[in-house]
Amino acid sequence: MRLCSRRRKLLRNLLILAVLSFSMCLFILSYFQHTNLELDKQVMALALKPNGFVNKLSQREILNFDHAWEQDKNMSHEIQKEFSTVLLLSDAIAQTSAVPVTDDTLCVGPWPNHPECQNKMNWMEGNWKKDPCYAEHGVNDTPCSFQDYLSLVEHFCPPRPGKIINHPTSKRATVNSDLAPLLNELNRNPKFDWIKRRIQSLWPQWTDALKQLEMIRPFQHREKKILIHIGALSDKSKFHLAETADHGGPLGELVQWSDLISIIHLLGHQIVFSTEPNALKHILPGPSNSITGGCPTGREKDFSAIFTDIVGFKQFKSAMKSQLQHYLCLFRVLDSFGTEPQFNYKPWKSNNKYKKQSWGNLGLNPRQFMTMYPHTPDNSFLGFVVGSNRTNSLPPPEKKNIGLVYGKELYMWKGHHNYLDTVSKYIDIHSTIGTTTQKDQNYDISTVVPGFVSNHGILNRTALIKLLKESKLFIGFGFPYEGPAPLEAIANGCFFLNPRFDKPLNRENTKFFKDKPTLRGLTSQNPYTEHFIGKPYVYTVDILNLKEVNKALQDMLSKEPLPPYIPYEYTYEGMLERVSVYLEYQDHCSHVQWPPPSALVAKVSRQGESCKEACYREGLVCEPELFPLLNTEEALKNHDLKCSTVSTENSIHGPSIDSSGRCSLQEQRLLLSCVGEYHTVKRLCPCRTFRKGQVALCSEYVR
Q1: Distance from C-alpha of 575 to C-alpha of 579, rounded to nearest angstrom
Q2: pTM to 2 decimal places
Q3: Mean pLDDT along residues 508-518
Q4: H or E element: which one contains 540?
Q5: Are 457 and 541 found together in one domain?
Q6: Domain for residue 509, yes or no?
Q7: Mind listing the pLDDT tens digit for each residue in 199-212?
């Protein structure tokens, strides 16, 4: 009787839903009969979608509908009411009537898009009884119960067909231009002093950028709680960034943290700060007492994202032990030079010559690493800001015959006398040298720095910007690599003399890069300015070739002063737009793909060519998140790769075909790589379009 009653109730609910959906479609079609919007088509496509109205919609479909809906300011209240009724009824029916598949033969792999799933399923089979928390979550001896737990609780596996995932709801965030609450938090820790000062000085420009973007489209995003843990500022860190910030120490990382914190606060999200490993025990739960590490405590849901650096991630690992696995998908790791997949996935890397290096082995999705420049498409480009909101519309500043050297520490000046003598024939040389860092203790400023150099000492930001506005030339020494200062100089109307390297510098030939988890080679001190800005702002020269230096100086200084310039992605609007998109759509814990599958433009590389190069050659960019769409035998066939055999293996070049016709699919998703290459292989590459001046976003994306 109960079964019959349940069936009758299910049939009744389905009938009601069908009638409401059909009537709503007729009503909407009538309303939009005289309009030219795409909304009517989208509504019909969604309403008539089989197997449920709301429960089966993709996030992308819902977002597309929302955007179209909001564009019609005259939308009828009756339509809104009708649509809301159907949504509510559909959700209610879904909660009572959706019946998941229970056939355990369907709860077996492979799951190529979820690389840790199979290992976790195997572990559950032999260990789930060791901790009673698994049974409390519904785990029993069946594979489907394992998959339910690993998809709904720990997010290592995909949900099985028909299983409903109830995502927690959150309120909409309200943009927040009030700086006082953020300053109160930063004042609690003196190590945030430099960060606080940069945020304060740039805050009017951030709020102005927000207004400019909201004129195009108001921000509408969910409020998040975000943990920011800067391990490099901890007492145990060897970098001493806070202590040296005002004395010539490196500022690149602090610049990025300042700008990221500004955006998160401005967008109305909650922030929790920490710098010390001991604080993590109070902010997040400690390790489980069980042998296995046990189930998640539930506290991981307190945060939507955890931003840290590599030092900080290692501190998390030490403090949280086995519980770290429940938080991995939340991490975003600031990583200036980037981490390539082969250095990130420890089991694969242990079989090659790059086994020993201290910055890799984290085992994250490579997109969770966030870089200073967009040099590594396998990672996410975070960036920083320079100039002002009106930089690109300002007239050329009045210049003096000054060249400012890019080198705040004495050791950077060693060996450059001939180069400086040549430059000094054309222009007065100034510097901003500090003498209190540890590396400078072995140098005497009188022997390292020529007497004709005017040294201003370490300047605050206001004084430095004033000096850059007066300077014609920014003079590179070749180090530091890929810092933010050249962009700041160009944003203030300077030429940049960018040292070119005879051979690209990498981990094979340069001590600085020996432990960096990348094979990337730097062609100059700042490759971004070399390749994406170039002349007339940037002259990339061999500074050991004085004839070449002379020619560049003659060419530069014969020109009229340049107007300030900066690429859009390094403006306040550009970074604010990019980070807001990351926070809203880049979710490594869910099973929603972003960018969406519609962004895929598949290309086959030349033999020995990486996907980064293949996409760039076509005016596109490689998008690693789209690799799973191509990592199938069907995709190989669809793109005319005539395979004699197809195997699945761990490599850095799959999916691919070699010169003998053997095809390879990628077994381990963490090894899917845009930069991987092999001399006998052609790769099947996931490319996408990009916005000019905003490489992180597809060209189709419009706020």
Answers
A1: 6
A2: 0.80
A3: 93
A4: strand 538-541
A5: yes
A6: yes
A7: 999 999 999 999 99
In sequence order, the 6+-apart residues with CB closer than 8 A to the CB of 383 are 256, 259, 372, 373, 374, 569, 570, 574, 575, 578
- Give the contacts of 657 (CB within 8 A, at least 6 positions apart): 636, 641, 642, 643, 663, 664, 681, 682, 684
Residues 487 and 430 in one domain: yes
Rounded Cα gap, residues 129 and 567, in angstroms: 57
216/68 Cα distance (integer angstroms): 15
Q: For residue 142, what are its two tokens?
A: 């069946």
Instruction: Number of helices (H) and strands (E) in the chain: give both, helices first.
Output: 24, 19
Range of 604's domain? 595-688
> In Å, how far are 314, 381, 391, 479, 501 from 526, measured between CA atoms?
29, 16, 21, 9, 10
Residue 7, token pair as written in the block:
């069936």
User: How many C-beta atoms lie closer than 10 Å to residue 19's C-beta?
Assistant: 10
E runs forming strands in 93-149: none
**Strand, helix or coil at 334?**
strand
Nearest to 521 by CA among 506, 531, 510: 506
Can you name the residues that pair with 228 across neighbouring β-strands? Answer: 273, 307
3-state SS, residue 75: coil
Give pairs for 646-650: CB < 8 Å, separation 24+: 650/347, 650/348
Domain identity same for 480 and 531? yes
CB within 8 Å of 564: residues ≥ 6 apart: 387, 391, 392, 394, 396, 397, 490, 491, 492, 493
Nearest to 217 by CA among 73, 57, 37: 73
Residues 116 and 148 in one domain: yes
Given a contact cutoff of 8 angstroms between Cβ atoms, the answer to whether 195 and 261 are in contact is yes
d(CA 696, CA 326): 28
Cα distance between residue 313 and residue 306, in whole Å = 10
Q: Is residue 364 part of a domain?
A: no
Q: What is the pLDDT of residues 352-409, one digit of tens each?
A: 555 556 788 899 999 999 999 999 999 999 999 998 767 667 777 789 999 999 999 9
* Tokens of residue 97, six digits: 């009537």
